[in-house]
Design brief:
By secondary structure, this protein is mostly beta strands. Helix content is 2%, strand content 38%. It folds into two domains: 5-469, YVTN repeat-like/Quinoprotein amine dehydrogenase (Methylamine Dehydrogenase, Chain H, 7 Propeller), CATH 2.130.10.10; 481-554, Immunoglobulin-like. The model is unreliable at 1-17 and 472-482 (pLDDT under 50).
């Protein structure tokens, strides 16, 4: 009898060492496309394919301040900085001086600089439909200004504050055409003789100037640390994420700059006040610690139209200090819109903004095996999968709709250079040296990739396996082999393999790094029992006579 097996994926790794860098896993239901990333300590930006091979590299004189994207015209748009201390007034991670547009050949074709002794751009940007840029920035407030605004004097150890604001920059003229300042939307219940005094619980649209958290819980000058910005073109709204107080906010962009400084005007008729907020109701006296849902977060954004869960908000929940232990998760919420025409959200006085909890969440099993305490991002893909950047580990991975990892890659680029395959990631001051702010997966048909030379080169890491083979095949192959039966699957203690046809075959079991963990001959209808109790939890491949034909899962105890 002739037997047919359809091979959806064939990946061959035959290293004589541990596969510590580059491509770790590539399954058949991975989203087709390319991955863009700018290692934080390096000056180059890389575009790789699903096999981890270099497609293109943009060299720069600057390290990324944080965000980097590929524009539809194929140019790179990136934050750029000489490092956190390049501006000694605002010396903190994520701070930058420039946003640069760099063409495919590495030429800087546009640049905007915004950094001096009173302001500094930082972290992120978003391109509006009209081509303008929205950019978050810090502005310096003196101790006297902070006290006059109602800041608790015990929360001024640095004698100053960095207030958050947003600028809109016209790409053609480089002029600032719109501004919003958090300093215009404050409340406090500390000093009745100072400005902004009131009952915090009665004003969820305002931010308590004395609310602190995260690394600056004692009141240091970097107060909120906004680390991401997004724009909703359907509602003309801006989404800002505060890492330190574990909350994100939505504001109205349909205002004028004058209205944005007030409490009325715009589609919402709320001026520049917060029209929605979520993640930590304690911040506006609407709950206690048990109501908190965010524990430091990054990359809060609306899921784009055409994707699964479009219009909902997705974010990377870093998970610092969770009551259950420190671990990261990817969370999605569906904000309750009251009226799309006015951009207002449902709110019941005295009750925290809904929903109470995320409607979808991904965490690893065991949970602590996926933890990035800073940086990081996530992205919903066209095939329904979710792409994740675990920034503190320099690790990118993709999960399918069953929350199974189907693709995985470790960044081999550090500030001191590119690592050699088999190396361990160096750690300096308790941080990996291959950290990445955010990585983005682009589809094959993305406009910016059309009519470009996308010929794969070598992997980025040094001393990769020769020859380096990574082939995705969707053809049905005519093979005279039989299906192999593997059970139970998943298992925690042992798995049994059986051939149904009388024959002798060579069976190899491989982990997802391509390393052989079992190797023996098996005759038809003979049982092969494998003790997997000492195996690390994960996916293992079954290779029959040189062909990978099945897989099984070893579950954690």
């Amino acid at each position: 009898m002739k037997y047919y097996i359809k091979f959806l994926l064939l990946i061959i790794f035959t290293p004589s060492y541990s596969q510590t860098l580059g491509l770790q896993q590539y399954d058949d239901d991975t989203q087709d496309g390319y991955i863009l990333f700018s290692p934080f300590p390096a000056t180059s930006t890389y575009l790789i394919d699903n096999c981890g091979r270099l497609i293109h590299e943009w060299e720069s004189e600057f390290r990324p301040a944080a965000a980097t994207i590929l524009l539809p015209n194929g140019n790179l748009l990136k934050t750029a900085s000489d490092g956190p201390a390049a501006n000694p007034v605002f010396a903190f991670g994520g701070g930058g001086e420039h946003i640069q547009e760099i063409d495919w050949d590495g030429n800087v074709v546009w640049e905007f600089t915004y950094s001096n002794d009173t302001v500094r751009m930082h972290h992120d940007f978003v391109v509006l439909p009209n081509g303008n840029l929205l950019i978050p920035a810090w502005e310096l407030k003196t101790g006297d200004e902070a006290i006059a605004a109602g800041r608790d004097t015990a929360l001024l150890p640095d004698g100053e504050m960095w207030a958050e604001f947003v600028i809109e920059v016209d790409r053609n003229t480089k002029e600032i055409v719109w501004e919003w300042h958090m300093w215009d939307h404050l409340i406090q219940d500390y000093d009745s003789t100072k400005a902004n005094y009131g009952v915090i619980a009665d004003h969820p649209e305002l931010l308590d100037i004395n609310r602190t958290g995260g690394p600056t819980v004692d009141g240091q000058k970097n107060w909120l640390h906004i680390n991401s910005i997004d724009f909703n073109p359907m509602m003309n709204q801006i989404l800002l994420n505060s890492f330190f107080i574990s909350e994100f906010f939505i504001i109205d962009h349909s205002t004028t700059t004058l209205q944005a400084a007030s409490h009325s005007g715009g589609n919402s008729d709320m001026g520049g006040d917060l029209i929605y907020r979520w993640g930590n109701p304690q911040n506006y006296d609407h709950g206690n610690a048990s109501d908190r849902t965010i524990y430091g977060s990054h990359n809060a954004h609306w899921i784009a139209q055409g994707l699964q869960d479009a219009g909902k908000i997705m974010f990377f929940n870093n998970g610092n200090g969770r009551p259950q232990g420190s671990f990261s998760s990817i969370d999605i919420i569906n904000p309750p819109v009251d009226d799309y025409s006015t951009g207002q959200y449902l709110y019941q006085r005295g009750i925290a903004f809904a929903p109470r909890n995320a409607e979808w969440s991904y965490a690893a099993d065991p949970a602590e095996s996926f933890y990035s305490n800073f940086l990081s991002g996530t992205q919903r893909l066209p095939n329904g999968n979710t792409f994740i950047c675990s920034g503190a580990r320099g690790r990118f991975f993709e999960i399918n709709e069953e929350n199974e990892i189907v693709w995985q890659y470790i960044n081999p680029v550090t500030g001191s250079g590119i690592l050699t395959q088999g190396d361990t990631i160096p750690v300096v001051n308790d941080r990996n040296t291959n950290i990445v702010f955010r990585s983005i997966r682009y589809e094959n048909n993305y406009p910016g990739l059309q009519n470009r030379d996308l010929t794969p080169g070598d992997p980025i890491e040094l001393n990769f396996t020769q020859p380096y083979t990574c082939e995705l095949t969707t053809a049905t192959e005519d093979l005279f082999v039989n299906d192999i039966v593997v059970y139970p699957n998943p298992s925690t203690d042992q798995v049994i393999l059986r051939l149904d046809r009388p024959r002798t075959a060579t069976i190899r079991l491989l982990d997802m790094l391509g390393q052989v963990v079992q190797n023996r001959s098996l005759k038809g209808e003979e049982l092969m029992t494998v003790d997997v109790s000492s195996f690390f939890p994960g996916i293992y491949l079954v290779e029959l006579d040189g062909h990978i034909i099945s897989k099984f899962i070893v579950a954690g105890q």
